[in-house]
Amino acid sequence: QVQLVESGGGLVQPGGSLRLSCAASGFIFSSYAMSWYRQAPGKERELVATITNIGGSTSYADSVKGRFTISRDNSKNTVYLQMNSLKPEDTAVYYCGTMGYWGQGTQVTVSS
Fold it and tell me: Which residues of the chain have pLDDT under 50?
């Protein structure tokens, strides 16, 4: 079965960086686009970034463009989200997703 396991979240000060990872299993990872989403308290889940199956194309929400970078390593069945210049409004639970499947999420808190 499809499994997605996120890691790398934590507490960081404004302006800091974090790198999230999502380990995938149960499907042919290199055949599918992967995405990162986030959900802040009281808000709907929103799409943050997407990468095509072989990583040739990426797209980002306007709110994170220039600060976040999505990448993948198909040899490790893993997708990453490098987050730089973090802001308090980036605080949320971050999920990776594909084909309608989601991981359990990892909490990112940006606070001084």
Answer: none
